[in-house]
Amino acid sequence: MSTALSESLDILHVSKHYAQRGVPLAVLDDITLRVRPGEFVSVLGSSGCGKSTLLRLIAGLDSDYSGEIRVAGERVKDTSLERGIVFQDHRLFPWLTASQNILAALRNAPLSAKEKREAVAEHIALVGLNGFENAYPHQLSGGMAQRVAIARGLVNRPRVLLLDEPFGALDALTRARLQNELQRIWERERITMILVTHDVDEALYLGDRVVTMAPRPGRVKRIVDVALPRPRQRSDPRFIRLRDEVLADFAEDGAAAHSDGGGAPSGGQHVSGAPVDSPITDWRLAW
Fold first, then answer.
1. Model confidence, pTM
2. Angle at CA of residue 33, ends 29 and 34, nearest 5°
3. Which end of the chain has fewer CB within 10 Å, C or N?
4. What's the CA gap between 151 and 186, in Å, rounded?
């Protein structure tokens, strides 16, 4: 087996069901995908298509599914320092400073106290937060708090960084800035990244490939190669053409959701629908 394949993330015939009032509810149906090492993959779909559930399975936060997920040939059975995750809300501990929040992710790392301090300082600098090391979450803007969350996800040098709509709650200007920041970090670190989003522009702007998912139950609809040079320009006719092609994929799903009382694609850039994921109350720490 080649080195590239042995270091890949492999999702093999993964299906997932939840029990809803005693009735099985299919959330994911036979997902198969190989993510190459160092690749940036965007997973795009309407709300409720199971894309965040898929990320939780890759992270090891849920092991109740059929199929297999393997990272570098090893089957995912639980959470691991090799898989970092960043959520839509930053989930920082409010009683800890920015540095202390990042340090908390290193609690199980086989490093000395000095090495941990150096790793924290390096990642504070990586996300551009020098000078805010001792700030508490309530003293940071939303974008700055998400930078801390990204640093926390990266500090263990994971093989894979999972991003669950990390910019979804931010205003448009901050979101665009952080998309550029994330791209800069990815280009420097070359860590495999998987971004879950319902924003078509974001998926195409950041991803080497875009995996579009069909809803209820979630399944891979199409995989789009984004063969555009970086840094990408949203005004590039090739970008616009590709965006229109991806949106067309969701036109039928959006019409069906609208007829059922759900939302149709909004603003020409987002894909929306009725959520079906059951509430999750048994979260475990991902590090």
1. 0.83
2. 160
3. N
4. 12
| Contact (Cβ atoms closer than 8 angstroms) between residue 273 and residue 253 | yes
Which two three-digit tokens encode residue 205?
């702007």
What pLDDT, on a 0 to 100 scale, did the predictor assign at position 168?
85
Backbone phi, then psi, for 201, in 5-degree steps? -60, -45
| Dist. CA 34–CA 176, nearest whole Å | 28
Do residues 156 and 285 touch, judged by C-beta distance below 8 A? no
Instruction: List Cβ neighbours of 227 (8 Å cut-off, separation of 6 or more).
Output: none
pLDDT of residue 252: 64
Query: What percentage of residues in the chain have a pLDDT greater than 90?
Result: 62
215 SS3 class? coil
| Identity of the residue numbered 92 | L
What Cα–Cα distance (Å) separates residue 136 from each residue in 83, 100, 103, 117, 198? 26, 9, 14, 18, 30
**198 in helix, strand or coil?**
coil
